Amino acid sequence: MGFEDTVLLSRILTMMTLSFHILYATIGVGIPLMILIAQWVGIKKNDDHYILLARRWARGFVITVAVGVVTGTAIGLQLSLLWPNFMQLAGNVIALPLFMEVFAFFFEAIFLGIYLYTWDRFEDQRKHLLLLIPVALGAAASSVFITIVNAFMNAPQGFDILNGELVNVSPLLAMFNPAMPTKVAHVMATAFMASAFVLASIAALRLVQGSNHIYHKKALLLTMKLGFVFSIATALIGDFSGKYLAEYQPEKLAAAEWHFETEGEARLILFGVLDGEEPKYAIEIPYALSILAHGVPGAEVTGLNEFPEDERPPLWIHYLFDTMVTIGMWLAFFSFVFLFGTWGNWAIITKKWFRWLTVAGGPLALIAIEAGWWFTEVGRQPWILRGYLRTSEAATTSGQVDLMIILFAGLYFILGVGTIVVLSRMYKRNPVEKELADRQKGGKGGDPE
Amino acid sequence: MTLEIIGISVLWLFLFLYVIVASIDFGAGFFNAYSAFTNKQHILTGIIQRYLSPVWEVTNVFFVFFFVGIIGFFPLTAFYYGTTLLIPASIALVLLAVRGSYYAFATYGAKINHRGYIYMYGLSGLLLPASLSPVLAMSEGGFIKMEGSQPYLDYWALFTSPLMWSIVVLSLTAVLYISAVFLTWYANKAGDAKATDLMRKYALVWAGPAIVTATGIIYELRDHNPEHFSRILDLWWAFAISFLLFAGTVYLIWKRKNYGLAFILLVGQFFTAFFAYGVSHYPYLLYPYLTIYDSFTNEAMAIALIIAFIAGLGLLLPSLYLLFRLFLFDKDYVKGKSDYHA
């Protein structure tokens, strides 16, 4: 097997692991905050529904965390197994946040264990709620640190290369690179946003299935509010991300926007197909790209032709970008309509088709997460460390990557199916109506056993 | 003390902690499966689930800590070990996934207590040490070779090596022994006489094989890596202390006395042996290519990592203390009197 093949195969395996892991990671970062908010609202309003909501979310959450731990360990190790040359270089400069990520995760894992096994152990509910704060903080901090590593890959700094030797390494400078603020904010906001819509999806699904219980309605309203807030935050941060790209990674923005010639008053192109350098059947929004890139309609946006051909990202990332943005916009709009409709008592929001649209929100949000990560990773190509190390130079020379792809594909398939089967069985066996009735009868007996 | 030594000591300590906590986890799974096989499952399952379910994620983090830390302190290891460990490490990942999913699906989730799953979970507890421990054999040299400038793993040499097999067998016996001693103590604390007796029996059964295989490795090293062997002989006194601690554990277990102290002596036994082995391995990370000096990261990163480590420890130790107090040292919890799971 040639070297060329191992690069492609390593990319496929990394893509597989990351695409699978990111679903669990996103939920893992976002859901603790949702549980925290629900439990807090429950304690504050003295409303048992919200407490139970938090508890039932926590039960499902722990299953996704366990799978996330497994896939996270996989990607952590695969970075060294598949990209040894990259990790050797990166280890010298960006090992600090990787290391801190382990501590953050440690912290989260410890308190998650405690939180899960101490329901009703304390007289004062607020004490139990306190235990969740380190879980949420640890989860958020892990994602911050790991995103910093990814930001470094996009905008490496904090070192010099002198005669092939790494010198003047500054771990802090490497961490606080230009890509870091927008990337970290974007990852966090979208994790909260996606988690809220996933939970909203579940509540809406129960309503579509015929339950008319106030519990689900409360769950739906709470999650849609949160979804709306975080989708607005995401949109704002997305705008900053565009300005970051225009400044530091113009080739990524240009490839995403099919913007070939450097020019002012640049239009934004949505969808369409490319005929040479001319987009066809596309939606064009005049000045929008200039505004996205620099905030001014007349601003000049660097075109792709400024870059040598072997340093341009593939043009199909345009569709990934569009998918991400379209879904984000749709969810912001949709949750706005939902909230407005709820306050105004519109008939439409209780219609079945509208509920189905709500159900679609969760899967759509996860698709947007996938599209976003694919966009940022493929959009960095041909670099693994922009400007310093090409992906093609970083891969392993081991000849058995193909076998490992089959092995891990099987593993992820089983884990994915297992998650869905176990989660749906768990909630079906112990529906909320039954649990509420049990609680009223026997006080606090909420355990499925 | 140089930065290199601080770095490797920290990592070695965490690897040691992983060896202990993971052995308890792996062995417990195996005993659980074995007792299911012999229809004595009710004796152990409760105890195993009460202890393991809240802490297995923490166990896993020790492992992640080690491999992230070694890339951080010694980035060049990524090049040698990363390239060559693709298959063994991938297999280990799949086995870890079996264990993680068992906790997720069988104990947290819908309680799938299918026998096949229990057996798979138990078996993974033996296969994992068997797939991870060969790395120790590889570090002795002779298995990782160079083709031009690229390292590769000579599987034939590895699989026909008595050294590799004796390390694998040691890892298995050690896992079962460590786990049995710990669970004897835990079962005793839980006031479960039946489980205590059963685990005590296992502890005594596996004590002999554990010490014989450990000695076997030193013997195998004489031929495989004479340099390392002679350095081990220089440290004979440390291994002698380790043996005395071992004898103490066995004595206490035999006499049914003070299981808590027995477990502490066991940790001492492994600690001395593990560190004596580590010191004798110094300065090599991989014979003869890689030492802790030529693979070390730059000074700025090393200092940053050590500061992060100290800060992290300040956060972790109180948290771990809380975890242990609530689950390991809480009488009602250990005895299974209270169930507070979400």
TrEMBL record, chain A:
It is found in: Cell membrane. The chain crosses the membrane at residues 20-41, 61-82, 94-117, 129-153, 184-207, 219-238, 316-341, 353-375, 403-424. Its main location: membrane. Coiled coil: none annotated. The keyword Cell inner membrane does not apply. Signal peptide: none annotated. It is a multi-pass membrane protein. Keywords: Cell membrane, Electron transport, Heme, Iron, Membrane, Metal-binding, Transmembrane, Transmembrane helix, Transport. PANTHER family: CYTOCHROME BD MENAQUINOL OXIDASE SUBUNIT I-RELATED, CYTOCHROME D UBIQUINOL OXIDASE. Belongs to the cytochrome ubiquinol oxidase subunit 1 family. This is Cytochrome ubiquinol oxidase subunit I. The lineage of its organism: Bacteria, Bacillati, Bacillota, Bacilli, Bacillales.
UniProtKB/TrEMBL annotation, chain B:
Coiled coil: none annotated. InterPro entries: Cyt-d_oxidase_su2. It is found in: Cell membrane. Keywords: Cell membrane, Membrane, Transmembrane, Transmembrane helix. The keyword Transmembrane helix applies. The chain crosses the membrane at residues 6-34, 55-79, 85-105, 117-137, 163-187, 199-219, 235-254, 261-280, 300-328. Its main location: membrane. It is a multi-pass membrane protein. Belongs to the cytochrome ubiquinol oxidase subunit 2 family. This is Cytochrome d ubiquinol oxidase subunit II.
